[in-house]
Amino acid sequence: MNTAHKHTGDGHEHKAAPMVEEITDYEVLEIAVRELAIEHGLFTAEDHRRFTEWAESVGPAAGSRLVAKAWTDPAFKARLLEDGTKACKEIGIDWAEPTGFGTPSDYTNFRVLEDTPTLHHVIVCTLCSCYPRPLLGMSPEWYRSTNYRRRLVRWPRQVLAEFGLVLPPEVEIRIEDSNQKCRFMVLPVRPEGTQNWTEEQLAAIVTRDCMIGVALPRPGRTADVHPIHKARRPVQSSPQHGRAAE
Amino acid sequence: MSTASDVDLGRIALLEAIRREGKEWDVIAPRYGVTNPDPPWKTSLIAMCECLSVNGTLPTLDRRRAEDKLANSVYGEVPAPESELLALVHTMLNRGLVAEGDLASRMRTVRSRLEAA
Fold first, then answer.
1. How distant is the Cα of A167 from the closest Cα of chain B, in angstroms?
2. Does A101 contact chain B (CB < 8 Å)?
């Protein structure tokens, strides 16, 4: 059991963060198979360290900054829509990292999908789990699930409703299927009530889900909170059957 | 060499024992009051998948196809990322990239090392 303790040696007190104090076979398995793979020459320890550091370094904050800059700088937005990969370098994101040609899972052709008041984009990868990782970090588990991948293209409004996003009928929904050649990200419409906001303020409301397209940015909404659940039965075709996220 | 399309969905004794133990992160983390949503080995697993793909040993698309099949069958009740780890190792064993006996032996060695006082 966790043994939180007080540390007082340097004149202040704080409790140690709780830790899992047992070694599971999953942890042991990951280490064991990695060691054997390195010993068998399947990859090197240096390669593994390099990809680990890269994976630790990516997250959705980069995408949030990209959107905020596009909202406040029309010239940048034009460059972003013209050549997403190139424009990313302006905020310090190089899709060629960490190998010089990207990772095996991140193709360097990146396109930004601009929403309008009457057009809403959502990204998916029906084939596997392609995702703009240099900008959004690792994909959430629900994005990788076959449930999301299969159902979104068939019942987009209902699936979005499960995320709590109910769009009016006059808004066209366009699903963009990522593939082995291209990565996509959504540029949402800048919400009302954000006039005169700084880029930092704007970035705070551009969450990961907004850039996937399963949520809309709005003042006060700074986190993605929804349950991961599997549908046990196929959804019906009528929007009112879509179950809002709790 | 086998391909993703003929991934063997037969259960593997070593991995079955781990699965049956039920020590997934979302089970044990709350026991200790830990709120981090991911186990500490997850990033290392991601890096291992990239390493195996970058030189063509196990391309990402092959791995993900096998993972989909396994996650919807053999490891259907196992949450991620444990299901991803089991699927990766299952695929590596299927392809002869590592041997089950070697892996079991190395696991004993690793555990002994981690539990050393």
1. 30
2. no
A12: its two tokens = 């202040």
Size of interface A-B (CB pairs under 8 A): 149
Written as tens digits, the pLDDT of chain A (246 aa) is 444 455 555 656 667 888 898 999 999 999 999 999 999 999 999 999 999 999 999 999 999 999 999 999 999 999 999 999 999 999 999 998 888 878 877 777 899 999 999 999 999 999 888 999 999 999 998 999 888 999 999 999 999 999 999 999 999 999 999 877 789 999 999 999 999 999 999 999 999 999 999 999 999 999 997 655 555 565 555 544 444 333
Q: For residue A214, give the amino acid letter.
A: V
Of residues B18, B23, B103, nearest to A36 (C-beta): B103
Q: Rounded to whole angstroms, how far apart are CA atoms A31 and A25?
A: 10
Q: Does A75 touch chain B (CB under 8 A)?
A: no
Is-above-0.90 flag for pTM? no
Cβ-defined contact of A43 to B54 (cutoff 8 Å): yes
In chain B, which residue's Cα lies nearest the Cα of A149? Answer: B68
Structure token pair of residue B44: 């290392």
Best B45, B50, B57 residue to mutate vs chain A (most A CBs within 10 Å): B50
Contacts of B64 in chain A (CB under 8 A): 127-129
Tell me the residue range of the domain where B81 lies. Answer: 4-115
Q: What span, in angstroms and rounded, lies between the C-alpha atoms of B52 and B44?
A: 12
Confirm or reject contact between A243 and chain B (CB < 8 A).
no
State the catalytic residues of A.
125, 128-130
Domains of chain A from N-terminus onward: 25-55 (no CATH), 59-241 (3.90.330.10)
Question: What tokens does B49 get?
Answer: 């998948």
Cβ contact A178:B64 at 8 Å = no
Give the SS3 label for residue A132: coil
ipTM: 0.96
What's the Rg (C-alpha) of chain A? 21
